[in-house]
Write a structure and sequence with these properties.
heterodimer; A: alpha/beta; five-stranded parallel beta sheet; two-stranded antiparallel ribbon; 11 helices; 42% helix; B: mainly alpha
Chain lengths: 353, 109
């Protein structure tokens, strides 16, 4: 009788699988990723390596000496002082500056993030910039500032533009495309305005996060803003983290540098991001809650390994809740988190996480 | 979760030399092996030493580039970043902004 392996489902629940079942899931998932992305499957040796990482009897696993990678993230201070809805925040009533110092010195991270929480408009932005200047005096690790196109905030009922999700069911396809293009222009203007102010106060890196959450128009906004910012404020680095493995065609026809954005998988997203001037790229692979953790992680490593192979810039796969193999649950189990990190560093050849 | 990732595969920030390698990715787009090699050469240690707390704690203190534990008279924050920019031969925007405001020129050799 085969020894059972304790692992999890994509929603975080513990399950027992035989080694044959785990190997079959790894093989099926690398084939699925290769088929969808038109990329190579993991080799037999890589599949065996991934199996060993997953089947390790230790609860927490790690890389060997010298294989460590650097860490960036999108929620450093939010994690400490806000609620679960804001990226798993713990609700400790402390300032963003103090939260970042804890992130740097108690969590031992390689960078720390500030963001737009509390920012309700351009007129109120001065105090956020002063908060950044103050934090610079105390923080040693590079400071990132997280933002993004936030396309949904431009559409009704929140914003001033008609909502394409209202127009599309009515068959008003051209109108839906037109309004997305108008909202994109406004979003680009806002993002460039914000970023120039961030560069003025010495932010090390703009972290454009959850990109293409609203599909191809959202991706277009981010790419165009990067292209403009690399001319205006080249001293500020830009990291681009994606929202999912596949760019949805909310517009369907929008292009950047002559390439259609809808339908792009991570390796295609990377190349267009490189063209725009992005300095660090964060691929995302979706998690399927109904599939096993081995199945999910095999897909992730297949996509990330190929993306890393063809990249000219550092790759930091996004490894938050419900992306790149981390289960879709509020408090991700440490056994899965450590296996994701190890697999992406050793097989995925990530430059960071 | 950042602690779990850090324990499993992270360099360790200012416990070691993770922030320095991070800066080379940001300022020069260096892939990980190249960034580690660059920082190791500047610090005169091996690439593997960059993640070794035993080696890096004392070296960071000697170089005044920030330590994870607080030291009276030690350098952290802006003071450490002045020295990191000089050590790695890179521009750090917040350091340059501070120099402008304080009327400081380049640091003497």
């Amino acid at each position: 009788m085969q020894e059972e392996i304790l692992t999890r489902m994509g929603d975080g629940q513990l399950v027992k699988m035989s080694s044959t079942q785990v190997k079959e899931d790894i093989a099926a998932a690398t084939w699925d990723a290769a088929d969808r992305g038109k990329i190579p499957e993991l080799t037999k040796a890589e599949q065996e390596h991934l199996f060993e990482i997953i089947a390790d009897k230790n609860r927490v696993v790690s890389v060997s000496h010298g294989e460590e990678v650097v860490l960036t993230d999108d929620v450093s201070y939010i994690r400490l002082n806000q609620d679960e809805g804001a990226s798993g925040g713990m609700g400790i009533p402390i300032s963003p500056t103090i939260a970042m110092l804890i992130h740097e010195r108690a969590f031992a991270q390689d960078s720390a993030v500030l963001g737009a929480t509390g920012f309700t408009g351009k007129a109120e932005f001065n105090w956020k910039l002063q908060e950044i200047e103050l934090t610079h005096l105390l923080l040693t690790v590079p400071m990132l500032y997280v933002s993004g196109p936030n396309m949904l905030t431009f559409y009704k009922p929140t914003g001033r533009f008609d909502n394409p999700s209202d127009l599309l069911p009515l068959g008003k396809i051209n109108e839906a495309r037109q309004v997305q293009e108008e909202a994109a222009a406004a979003s680009i203007e806002d993002l460039v305005w914000l970023s120039r102010h961030l560069a003025d106060v010495g932010v090390d890196c703009l972290n454009l996060d959850t990109i293409a959450a609203h599909g191809d128009t959202d991706f277009f906004v981010a790419l165009t803003a990067v292209q403009k910012l690399k001319k205006l404020v080249p001293e500020m680095a830009i990291e681009m983290g994606m929202a999912s493995e596949f760019v949805m065609g909310m517009h369907g026809q929008i292009t950047f540098n002559g390439k259609r954005l809808a339908g792009m998988y991570p390796h295609d997203q990377l190349k267009i991001a490189e063209e725009a001037g992005v300095d660090i790229f964060g691929p995302v692979i979706n998690v399927n809650r109904s599939r096993s953790f081995p199945w999910n992680l095999s897909r992730v490593v297949t996509f990330v390994k190929y993306t890393s192979e063809i990249s000219n810039i550092p790759i930091h796969p996004n490894v938050g809740v419900a992306v790149c193999g981390v289960p879709m649950c509020s408090v991700p189990p440490i056994d899965c988190v450590s296996r994701v990190a190890k697999a992406l560093a050793q097989i995925g050849k990530a430059d960071g996480l | 979760m950042p602690i779990a990732h850090g324990i499993a595969a992270g360099m360790g920030g200012i416990r070691t030399a993770g922030d320095l390698v991070m800066r080379m990715q940001l300022s020069r787009r260096m892939r990980l092996p190249e960034a580690k090699k660059y920082v190791a050469e500047k610090l005169k240690v091996s690439s593997a030493d960059l993640s070794d707390e035993y080696i890096m704690r004392n070296l960071r203190s000697e170089l005044g580039i920030g330590t994870v534990t607080s030291l009276v008279g030690g350098s952290n924050g802006m003071a450490a970043k002045f020295r990191i920019a000089e050590l790695l031969g890179i521009e750090i925007s917040s350091v340059n902004k501070f120099k402008e405001k304080a009327g400081l020129g380049d640091l003497p050799d």
